[in-house]
Amino acid sequence: MSDHRRTRSVRAVNLQLLGLLLISAAVLMQCSTADPEPTSIPIQPTPTPTPTPTSTPGPTATPFATPTAVPSPTVAPPPENLERGGVLNFAVPEGPPHMDPHLTVSSGLLSWGAGQAYSRLFKFEVDADSQNTTVVCDLCSSWRQSDPLTFSIQIRTDVQWHNFPPLNGRPLTAQDVVFSLKRQASANYPNAALLSNIAEFTALGDHEVVIRLKSPDSETLEKLADSHSRIVAPEAVEVNGDLRRGPTVGTGPWMVSEAAGDVTRLIVNPDYYNDDLPYLDGLDIQVIPSVATRAAGMRTKVIDLAQVNFDDVASARERFEEIDWIGIENPAAGVEIMMNTTRSPMDKQAVRTAMMFTWDAGDAIPMIPGGGEMFERGNSLYGVSLGLPIINSDWLLSSSYYPPRFNKTSLANSSLVSAELKSTDNIIIKVGEYGQQYIDQANAMAEGLASVGIRAEVERISTRKFGDEVWIGGDYDIAVGSPPPISSTTGYLFSVHHSDGPWNTTVYSDPELDRLIEAQAQEYDSAKRGQLLLEIQHRILTGSHRFITSTRTTYWMFWDYVNEFNPFTPRGDTDFLTRVWMSSRES
User: Fold this and answer.
1) Cα separations (Å) of 135 from 138, 332, 429, 524?
2) What's the whole-model pTM score?
3) For the chain, which domains are there?
């Protein structure tokens, strides 16, 4: 294919991607609030554009590397002091809009609701200490990749649908899997973008599925393990034409005993293929939008654990030593700063670097004496990150790279002298009304710039206007707001940091960065892809144009009789709930 034709192909793909991303933005802005509750996963998946290598010399992606080992779930022995049984009562802020996993992006259904009754072809296994994530089999027993575009997946022979009508416990087949994935990939379905690079799904007999790609894609297994990629049965869909009103009949570890807008009750699946899991008898999930009410329910032991704010944790710890807590940092969410590199004086890299020197970045990590644990991701220092949704901590830029770039006014002045910055009109900092933290950040930035003679004015705008003017229109000098809701590493890099990216509104362009983004998208070797991603992050940070100054942390508190509650949720995976158990407690 000629270079001219390759360029046209990439641009066509990017135009398709833009259309899907605009739909994503519309969904997000319709759901926005003035002070949104933190959620564990981004709300909308995005497609992976077809990568096209450029002619820029340098290291390239491995065209194809046969996996040296097929990862399987780690068979960890049950804890020695395990007490099986009991129903865990917990509260979350968001409920499901309906019961169809293919017709919503809601984590209230897919991660924390009745969506847990469904399995996926693959799932994520997370190391609680390192937070490194591995894709392992769920409904599959093994898989192999015969060429860069073909995956052959063997389906387990010991999986049955829940023993409810209309499935009544019949065995799972490869035809079920193909039906479900084709349904998810249907045009205009909200989760179709995840599977947009798959050209063909084929069932060979009852226990083999062959997937053929349009182009090499290093995230293929991740997408099949995503919480949105639930496997549903054709008979269940036929009952009402879709699954909005059920029936919810899956093959997962939990079965639905009750599902409504404000409560989901799940019971253990007695026929689950893993006889050891789950440890509990059931989950009682209550939707309580008010964080104060969730915290009150915890203090009175009406519920066993809840998603809350840090202040609620601190207050509860003052009264109850038996309450533990955990904070999970999300480096892809928080307070994002963007500088438009086509606007003066941000068109000079030295000026952008100097601006960063004037700003404090990140919040001091809060600690509570005697309280639980705070888990930190490897790419942040007090909450600073580049916003990439990377699931493997080994692929994240070390926190040591961030401190030298912030809070150094003396270096800011010398950088501005070298840049020969002249007096300018007011710079406008547009800040979205996402919460007080965003407003405070913008005001502090204006003060920092004033300290080195740069005049800046803060303009507060609604979240809807922020989406229109900033995310889509790129009409800003400096912007402060929430980052785009993209859960895929490759999708984020192509849409936000590639020169042709539809959300690259900073208009930063670097041919070598483009080449690296394209290379990692088709690199199947995990170690080599990790090195490419580290190089990418170095170049983004050097560009001094887009970063997160304070990442979002989700806080949970729970009574000390709740064990093994480790809410790391790569792409919305909540399989860890099957290993939660409760020890004896007083009523």
Assistant:
1) 9, 20, 41, 13
2) 0.84
3) 79-304+561-582 (3.40.190.10), 329-553 (3.10.105.10)
